[in-house]
């Protein structure tokens, strides 16, 4: 059984750990404290329980997934001897670089280091390590247990062997991949951020209500989820960081909607805070 380490146990980290655990991998989940990891463990176990009850998992896979999961706040022991490490921390370049520098020292030379970033440069991240050929972006989508896609983004130095390895791993966890040459925002984030930002501007300008904007996109353009619903799910603080990065790298058309900035300042971060464009309390 191959060892995979997931660094970061937020919404994405928990989903990534779940996907690997039910696929037979030994999964070490790492975060900065045991308290955070205990909450993550409860959330992942609840997801496993729900999947079993709905018939998505067999009893054997369910029990195996629980046995496969280890929660460890010590990065050294969590990441040592891992075949693959997936980083899923905040979308802040300095935090990611700090994590990758540590992983570069801890992990064997053959370990693949992947970032779950939705916008940021694997080239820049990889350049801070001694193994840029083994650094790649592996962009999962939220919620990970439902979404089939992984964007595989190669940096300037990422080797064909690394990219092929990630494609093979993705297939083993029942995901479909698209390969992207690095550019800020890749494919999906560039498109999605523009759509979501325009929806926020429409709401700010009083063109339509949040409900009607989302319904129009779902029924008129066949989107499975409205852009404002999706932003609430992702987290408005996360979306703002993405927009700020794209604005800095790609220019004026990615300037964050003033409404998004206002909501984040007010603490209206979406589902995780109980209120965003919708009220979840």
Task: Describe this structure as you would to a colleague.
This protein is 49% helix and 14% strand. It has helices spanning 11-21, 34-53, 59-68, 75-79, 93-106, 122-126, 160-172, 188-204, 210-220, 227-234, 236-250, 258-265, and strands at residues 3-7, 26-30, 69-71, 84-87, 112-115, 135-139, 149-154, 176-181. It has an eight-stranded mixed β-sheet with strand order 3-2-1-4-5-6-7-8, sandwiched between helices. Helix 6 (122-126) links the parallel strand 5 (112-115) and strand 6 (135-139). The longest helix has 20 residues, at 34-53. The model has no long low-confidence stretch (mean pLDDT 95).
Query: Which structural class fits the helix and strand makeup?
Result: alpha/beta
Low-confidence stretches: none
Query: What overall geometry do the principal axes of the alpha carbons give?
Result: globular
Total E-strand runs: 8
| Strand percentage | 5-15%
Query: How many angstroms separate the termini?
Result: 42 Å
Secondary-structure element string? EHEHHEHEHEHEEHEHHHHH
User: How is the main sheet built?
Assistant: 8 strands, mixed
Spatial order of strands in the largest sheet: 3-2-1-4-5-6-7-8
State mean pLDDT (0 to 100 scale): 95
Pathway: Lipid metabolism; butanoate metabolism
Pfam family, one: 3HCDH
Domain 3-hydroxyacyl-CoA dehydrogenase C-terminal: 185-280
Organism: Oceanobacillus luteolus
